[in-house]
Each structure stands twice: as C-alpha cells, then as structure tokens.
Design a protein that fits this description.
Length: about 425
Amino acid sequence: MEKFVVTGGRRLTGEVSVSGAKNAVVAILPATILAEDVCRIENIPNISDVTAMVKILKTMGAQVRVPNRTTLEIDTRHVRSFVVEHELTRQLRASYYLIGALIGRFSRARVAMPGGCYLGLRPIDQHIKGFEALGADVTMEENAMVHVEAPALMGNSVYLDVVSVGATINVMLAAVKAPGLTVIENAAKEPHIVDLANFLNTMGADVRGAGTDVIKIRGVKRLHGCEYSIIPDQIEAGTYMVAAAATRGDVLVKNVIPKHLESITAKLIEAGATVEEYDEAVRVKMDCRPGHCNIKTMPHPGFPTDMQPQFSTFLCLAKGTSIVSESVWDNRFRYAEQLQRMGANIHVNGKSAVIEGVETLKGAPIRADDLRAGAAMLIAAMSAKGVSEIEEIQHIERGYENVVEKLRALGAKIERRNFPDEDEDAQRTAG
Ligand code: EPZ
C-alpha cells in the first residue's frame, strides 16, 4: 500500500496545468459504444477511473489505441455483448453510463450496479424513470445487476424529480438514437453535460439545450466516428485554486475555462484572495489569513459539491465562523473527523458544518475517505505545520492526474511512500 507524506507550511507558487475533466471523460468513453466508427479523443486524463473504464470497454470487445499520452482511439464496432458483469463496474460510479449507451446501441443492457465514492444514498430511480419513459423495461436483479429491455425505444418527455447529473447523461445516451423527440426537463447543467452533448453532436447527434435545464434530443439513425477534445477539469482547477489560497501562495492555474470556475472564484474573493482571470488561466494569490464566509452547495452554476471538502478545509484557517451547507449529498462531511485530528474546529450537524477558524493546523496521520475528501486532506496537510501522512490515497488517484508531480512543481514537499515496508525499514535503521 502507498501513502503520501506531506511536510506542510510551504507556500505554493508557480504554474500548474489542469488535465481533462474526469466527469466528462467517464461519460464520453461509454458514449463511444454508440459510434459506428473510430472515435479519437484527446485531452484524456491519466487517472484510475479512466483506466478502469477503458478496461471495461476492452473486455466488451472494444479496440483501444493510445497514439500519445493524452489521446485514445476507440473502435467499438466489434462490441457484441450487452452484458457487463465486470467487477470493475463497482470501482466507479460512471459505469452506469454503460446502461444508457448499450440500450442506445443494442436495445438491451445487463450491467452490474455501479460503485463510486460513498456520499450517502446514491439511488438510480431517476435513471430508471428516464429509461422507462423512453419505453424500456427495467428489472433490478437479485445479483445486483440492472437489466433493461428496450426493443422499441421512442423519444418522450422526461421530467427529472431531482437535478441529477447521472440521470441526465444516461437519458441523453439512451435517447440519442431513439426515433422522435426526447425532452429532458429539470436537467443538470454541469460543464460535463455540455461536453457530452458536444461530443454526441460531433458524432452526428441532434442534442440541443445542454447547459440549460431543458435538453431536446431528436433521435438520429446513425452516429459516426469523430475527433474530440475533452474540456479541462473544473474541480481539479478549483482544487489547485483553493490549495494556492490555503497555503498563502501565488499560483497560475492554466488550461481552464474561467467561466466554469465562477462560483469558486467568487467565494475565494469573498474570503480575501485575489483572483485574476485570463482567457484560459486564473491566477490565485493570498497573502493573509482568509476571512470567514458561508457556502451552500448547489447543482451548477451553484457552488459545486465536489469542491465542498476542499473549501471547508480552507475555511478551517479563516478568521471567524463559517457555515457550510451541503444540499446535494446526505453524507459528505466524513472528512471532518480527520481535520479535527489536525486541530480544526469543525462541527458537523447533519448536512451542515460550523467552522470556527483556527490560526494553524498541525500535521497528523490522516485518511482520504473518498476522492474529494482526499484532495481536502492534501490541502490540509500542505497548509499545516509539521508532517502529515495520508492513507487510502487510491481515492485521490481516481480523479487527480500526477498530483504529486504537479504539487511538487509548485513547491510542496510531498512524497509517495510504501507502507508498512518502508516505515519498518526506517525504524530498523533508526533502531
Ligand atoms: C455526479 O454524480 C458526479 N459523478 C459526482 O462527482 C458529483 O458529486 C455529482 O454528480 C453532483 O454534481 C460523476 O459525474 C461520475 P447526481 P451523480 O445524480 O451523477 C440524487 C466526484 O467527486 N439522485 O447528480 O451520481 C442523489 O442522491 C463525484 O467527482 C436521486 O435521488 O450525482 C443526489 O442527492 C462524487 N435519484 C443528487 O440527486 C437518482 O436517480 C445528485 O446526484 C439520481 C440522483
């Protein structure tokens, strides 16, 4: 097993380049199942969720070429099976996009239930509601497989009872080749929804309105191959912005779409940071203790839940009291316990946290409970006094490409260490 050993107290300075968006690529890779030719996709991040999704596609019969480090060429013409029993589906949430893509291609799908970060209950009732509205029969099998039969898929209106990224994407995938008009109302508006729509349209689909709460999809008979480049990762960018501010640093975060970062930028400015926007970069500077502020997570364009743990960690160092309300997930404050071990004064009550800022955090042994909690632990460790050891780093590597190298280039002192072996070795040497 590996852990990160972080010596805190160093300002982050310099430049960092953001990779392709995890939550876009994990929808776009399954969407290639709908194409009748090769899709060349650029700006692919090297993260373990992508590795898992590519492995699943390969086990289904897809041919995948890697012409360079950030590009994949995917040929799904030889995929014959509509069944995905692979254990890997349980490693990531996005494996449920295979359901929408497979029913779009084969009119049927049997896919093992997805996994992903534990953030409270993660129902898929809205996905099922959408598939059923298009004429599918959905059965949840006892062996945790979702079985969908859709011999005559047909466009229809789908009103989502909750704004769901996953359900919006899955209904888009299922509807894109269904005859007639599908209208998704109360759709999610996240940047990755727009990226998927752009990808599908590049393949010849007719998807309009993505980025608003009404998406209209007119089914087409065929989708061809295409060349496409994934958008930059909004949350990776936001994480480096907050890390810069939390360490009182000065960082130029490059290869971003500043519009996607507006809610994060606004809150950083409210807390006293300086944020300069350029065409494809933002520069974050902070040279004093942050001021307190409140945040409430909301679907896009509100403050993203996927930035909540990182921003709350930053607020642990603020002057005064901040209140953080989580309105998307029932259980996204598990990391607070780790921050308390570092001296943070954060108290969770249901879906909100009250944070009394302290002047400094102190290094401690901590754990990455999930992907964004892990990013928060990195920020806490880098801004703390002393050494922190972060375990369960595999969660962080699901969504942050080359995180150690990127942070080191900004001046962080961070090492990847095997344990228990190297620790025991160190103790033997010391003894
Ligand atoms: C996506 O998850 C992201 N994952 C999550 O990012 C992100 O936190 C979330 O959207 C919200 O932005 C991927 O894109 C792979 P939802 P998803 O469906 O699609 C309820 C990260 O750290 N709901 O928008 O699973 C649900 O319980 C990850 O990168 C239903 O009630 O989220 C939640 O309260 C973590 N029924 C709310 O909707 C449903 O059928 C939003 O969930 C579906 C969802």
